[in-house]
Description:
The protein contains 2 helices and 2 strands; from the N terminus they run H-H-E-E. By secondary structure, the chain is mostly helical. It has a two-stranded antiparallel ribbon. The relative contact order is 0.03.
Amino acid sequence: MCCRPNCSSYAHACPPNCKAIKSCTNEDKGYFVDVKFFQLGQVTIPSSVQERYMKALTLKEESDRENLVQEAKVVRKTTNAMVQQIRNTAEEIRNNGTIEANLLTAVAQANYSTVLEIARSDGLKQIFHDLGFTQQEYKNSFNYLRTLRGMPSAHFTLDFQQRIVGNI
Length: 168
């Protein structure tokens, strides 16, 4: 492309890398016009161009919409996975708490039974000592009567005159 005759007439009078007028050939020369004022009037866009533009715009919007729908599905899946993970963690914590409570209950029950049996044993030793029971036969009879007395359907009477023990 050839340069203008006077490249210093205004700021962008000559394009970069243009050939000097003296070295230009006819093939290098183009048409130059100086326009002092330019007013663009009404421009009519043909309907085929307008339809193609609208179609491209519609396709772009549909593509954006589909991307948003896909992103929403991914977010829903991720959220559902997070909710399920939290539920699983909560269920695990609840189960661990139940297991610990059951363990503590079992330990407490065992301790209760141990303490109760030790107290019962110590109490019976004291009773047998205070009553002077030294023979196992007397101790067994006492335990048998104590067991019978604890039954709800057993009713006893004592008759010291005839030395009879029996039901009413």
